[in-house]
Automatic annotation (TrEMBL):
GO terms for biological process: sporulation resulting in formation of a cellular spore. It comes from Sporolituus thermophilus DSM 23256. InterPro entries: SpoVG (IPR007170), SpoVG_sf (IPR036751). The keyword DNA-binding applies. One of its GO terms (molecular function) is DNA binding. It holds the Pfam family SpoVG. The keyword Transmembrane does not apply. This is DNA-binding protein SpoVG, cell septation regulator. Keywords: DNA-binding. It comes from the Bacteria.
């Protein structure tokens, strides 16, 4: 399985989303860097959001990248949140 080898956090700039706490970059297997993953918090708890792009007509959001299975998404979310809290 792919492993997270590095997580780096930074403060969001011009934050208009009250749930957004941090942005992070994740490196997988020292080979691939995923930038601008959002770490958010609501009344249920912490969660992550992957980057997306809004269409020119503002009708659609397109994922830039995202996990294709729920197991890997949960792995990423737990590793990111654990590192941010500790």
């Amino acid at each position: 399985m792919i492993q997270i080898t590095s997580i780096q956090f930074r403060e969001p700039k011009n934050n208009h989303n009250p749930e957004l706490i941090k942005l992070c970059d994740v490196v997988l297997d020292d080979c691939l860097k995923l930038k601008d993953i959002q770490v958010c918090k609501n009344n249920i708890g912490y969660y992550i959001k992957f980057p997306n792009k809004v269409s020119k007509d503002n009708q659609y959001r397109y994922d830039i990248y995202h996990p294709i299975n729920n197991g890997f998404r949960k792995y990423m979310e737990s590793e990111i949140i654990e590192k941010m809290i500790n």
